[in-house]
Amino acid sequence: MEIIERPQRAMVVFAHPDDEIGCAGTIAAWVKQGTEVCLVLCTNGNKGTEDLDMPPDQLAQVRAREQQDAAATLGVKDLVMLGYPDGGLEDTPEFRGKLVQEIRRFRPQVVLTHAPMTTLRHSHRDHRTTGAVALDAVFPYARDPWHYAELTKAGLQPHKVGTVLLWGSDNPDVFSDITETMDQKVQAMMCHRSQFARPNRDPNRQPGDFMREGARRQGERAGLQYAEAFHKLEFRT
């Protein structure tokens, strides 16, 4: 099994506040070693509650603060929040252009995002849309100068991303050792406090338990104590 090499610059493109947890252990480990990281959050998460007394506008504000806290916990300073409504992502030129803009601005070597399609389980439509649009933004739209020529003319020059890592894939083929950042990953998840105030939750089971169990299972596949798994796509640079 291949172990991921650390890049100098990495971008995470994710649908909802808390979805960055899919690669949070990896990001935390890379930041500690000097990688510059940008988080691009696509929606404001304003529908992510079972509480009928929580209006969407107020929830969006709550989740923005939680996302800022989680980014700080991971050591990430560059956080971009695009602000689309939860459940409202569409594969449009506008959305793709916003991702192209951030890729050209930040110029990452590696982009991490949702696997756009799985067959073993159903995934949230926003996750699928984010993964698909992020891949298209990487190639060919961020690469070619006459795609989004207005960005090129404004000084955001084309950029070639070398690698995309997809979490949630049916067929992961590379792994990241998060043994030393497992606790930090859980701490970042717990910053998303609004997502754990739900009825019928097992009082004997801590929210981080399922995360540790999943990371332990992935670690067994790679000979590690805890790991995150990705499907790796490479692009010619």
Topology overview:
Blueprint: E1 2-3, E2 9-14, H1 24-32, E3 36-43, H2 56-74, E4 78-84, H3 93-106, E5 110-114, H4 125-141, H5 149-153, E6 163-167, E7 174-177, H6 182-190, H7 209-222, E8 227-234
Parallel strand pairs: 1-7, 2-3, 2-5, 3-4, 5-6
Antiparallel strand pairs: 6-8, 7-8
Helix pairs in contact: 2-6, 3-4
In short:
The chain has 237 residues and is α/β, with parallel strands linked by helices. The protein has 7 helices and 8 strands.
Task: Give structural notes.
This protein has seven helices and eight strands. By secondary structure, it is α/β, with parallel strands linked by helices. The longest helix is centred in the first third of the chain and has 19 residues, at 56-74. The two termini are 24 Å apart.
Low-confidence segments, ≥5 residues, pLDDT <50?
A: none
User: What percent strand?
Assistant: 15-25%
Q: How many domain units?
A: 1
- Derived structural class: alpha/beta
User: What Rg is obtained from the alpha carbons, in whole angstroms?
Assistant: 17 Å
For the report, how would you describe the main beta sheet? 8 strands, mixed
In CATH, the architecture is 3-Layer(aba) Sandwich
Write out key terms for the chains shown:
237 residues; alpha/beta; Rossmann fold; eight-stranded mixed sheet; 7 helices; 19% strand
